[in-house]
């Protein structure tokens, strides 16, 4: 049974300067009483419970995109490199002179990875750590990796893809998937926006539910999950559980929503509407044409779909689309599947009965994101580093801090139902250096001591 306690280290000074971040990360780990007997000495090794001599460690930040279209900066968009650097320092100490560290993620397909790591400081930070390891003569390697197999650019509304790798191990959850038991029609109509639906259908059928997991994630002995908690258009919130989507190397394996048809209601939008169904059909045709590099045909389908979508919204006053609303009943299943894989898939992708790797979460909420997250969030100065072993408890606390009832977030609600399989423990304590949160329950924090985040527009009706 894992420990479910969650720590909230607070500092009213909103700063990503490395010394300030080190102090906050140290406080978060100390609040959990990690290596308590050595705290305050040079021997203090707070991550030693999770990271052992010679381990292969994956540090998994949330990188998302290289820019924020909201105009409110990237500090609220992705996990900041100074937070990752502070965690790397404790990881190196726990490795005791031997091991390897991968800092890796699969951001959105349109992310300019080189631009992100250059402008953010990730590249400079990794170079600095490499130099320090070399000078200290430790047998520890560190690499920064893009886990994606495909990248894309959008020109005049048409997506142009480019293959950049072929890494990944296929993992089939079969009847252990959260999609198991759904009807064949429902599964056939699962979609991820901007990707060829035929590829998704190859990997999700009745009795087969496959994901392409980055090799470094499965080969890792321990994963340190470093989300950027913020609001999310499809899941309501994104935190530790949702951050594991970035260990999948090909987005075509990831169901995000379900199309409406004459037979099934789906969850793409709220109202039954012929024109919106036609718009989604044209979107499918556009994605197939793009995959075949028939860009003029793709452009035609784009305009045809846009016209149908305009008509459909005018007829039914529909506010939602692409599953970006509180009625999404698909994305939480994908998120739970990926969490099952991380915990139970061995290094070759075989699902086992026991947990296969150690796991810890450290979240960057120094500056968080609200409103139109996760892609175009608005800045929310918070001043928090949050930490804990159990990702579901971690997400319950971050959601409560945002001011949202956890029962209204499907990923958390459904993960709790799956707790016997995932070894989760609902009996946890919240520890903080802020009296408003220390010793409180998530429900009490949500009702009386929250930070009052503005939800994503598609979730406003449910969460306000």
Characterize the structure shown.
By secondary structure, the protein is an alpha/beta fold. It has two domains: 6-170 and 215-249 and 351-463; 274-316. It has helices at 18-31, 81-95, 113-120, 122-136, 184-188, 197-203, 215-219, 274-291, 295-316, 331-344, 391-402, 410-417, 419-422, 442-448, 460-463; strands at 6-10, 56-61, 98-105, 139-146, 150-155, 158-163, 169-172, 190-191, 204-205, 208-213, 222-226, 230-232, 236-238, 257-258, 358-370, 378-388, 430-432. The strands form five sheets. It has an eight-stranded mixed beta sheet with strand order 4-3-2-11-15-16-1-17. A hairpin with a 3-residue loop joins strand 12 (230-232) and strand 13 (236-238). Helix 8 runs antiparallel to helix 9. The mean pLDDT is 95.
SSE layout and pairings?
Layout: E1 6-10, H1 18-31, E2 56-61, H2 81-95, E3 98-105, H3 113-120, H4 122-136, E4 139-146, E5 150-155, E6 158-163, E7 169-172, H5 184-188, E8 190-191, H6 197-203, E9 204-205, E10 208-213, H7 215-219, E11 222-226, E12 230-232, E13 236-238, E14 257-258, H8 274-291, H9 295-316, H10 331-344, E15 358-370, E16 378-388, H11 391-402, H12 410-417, H13 419-422, E17 430-432, H14 442-448, H15 460-463
Parallel strand pairs: 1-17, 2-3, 2-11, 3-4, 11-15
Antiparallel strand pairs: 1-16, 5-6, 7-10, 8-14, 9-10, 12-13, 15-16
Give a short summary of the structure.
This protein is α/β, with parallel strands linked by helices and about 475 residues long. It has 15 helices and 17 strands.
């Amino acid at each position: 049974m894992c420990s479910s306690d969650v720590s909230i280290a607070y500092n009213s000074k909103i700063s990503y300067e490395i010394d300030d971040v080190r102090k906050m990360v140290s406080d978060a780990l100390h609040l959990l009483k990690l290596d308590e007997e050595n705290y305050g000495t040079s021997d203090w090794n707070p991550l030693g419970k999770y990271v052992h001599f010679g381990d292969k460690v994956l540090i998994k930040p949330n990188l998302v995109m290289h820019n924020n279209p909201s105009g409110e900066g990237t500090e609220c968009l992705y996990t900041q490199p100074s937070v990752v650097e502070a965690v790397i320092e404790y990881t190196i100490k726990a490795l005791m002179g031997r091991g390897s560290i991968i800092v890796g993620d699969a951001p959105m397909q349109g992310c300019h990875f080189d631009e992100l790591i250059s402008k953010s400081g990730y590249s400079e930070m990794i170079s600095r750590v490499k130099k320090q390891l070399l000078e200290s003569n430790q047998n520890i390697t560190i690499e920064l990796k893009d886990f994606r197999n495909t990248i894309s650019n959008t020109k005049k509304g048409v997506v142009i893809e480019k293959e950049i790798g072929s890494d990944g191990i296929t993992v089939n959850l079969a009847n252990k998937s959260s999609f198991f038991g759904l009807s064949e029609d429902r599964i056939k109509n699962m979609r991820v926006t901007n990707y060829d639906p035929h590829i998704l259908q190859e990997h999700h059928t009745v009795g087969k539910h496959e994901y392409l997991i980055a090799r470094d994630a499965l080969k890792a002995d321990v994963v340190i999950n470093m989300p950027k908690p913020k609001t999310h258009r499809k899941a309501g919130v994104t935190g530790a559980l949702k951050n594991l989507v970035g260990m999948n190397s090909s987005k075509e394996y990831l169901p995000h929503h379900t199309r409406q048809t004459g037979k099934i209601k789906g969850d793409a939008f709220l109202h039954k509407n012929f024109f919106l169904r036609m718009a989604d059909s044209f979107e499918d045709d556009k994605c197939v044409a793009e995959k075949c590099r028939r860009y003029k045909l793709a452009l035609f389908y784009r305009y045809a779909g846009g016209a149908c979508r305009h008509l459909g919204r005018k007829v039914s006053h529909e506010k939602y689309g692409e599953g970006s609303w509180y009625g999404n009943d698909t994305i939480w299943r994908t998120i739970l599947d990926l969490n099952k894989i991380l915990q139970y898939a061995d290094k070759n992708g075989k699902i086992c009965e026991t947990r296969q790797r150690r796991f810890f979460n450290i979240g960057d909420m120094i500056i968080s994101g609200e409103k139109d997250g996760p892609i175009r969030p608005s800045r929310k100065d918070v001043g928090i580093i949050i930490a804990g072993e159990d990702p579901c408890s971690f997400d319950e606390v971050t959601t409560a801090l945002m001011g949202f009832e956890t029962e209204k977030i499907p990923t958390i609600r459904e993960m709790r139902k799956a707790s016997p399989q995932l070894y989760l423990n609902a009996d946890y304590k919240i520890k903080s250096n802020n009296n408003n949160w220390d010793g409180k329950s998530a429900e009490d924090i949500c009702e009386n001591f929250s930070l009052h985040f503005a939800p994503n527009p598609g979730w406003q009706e449910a969460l306000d």
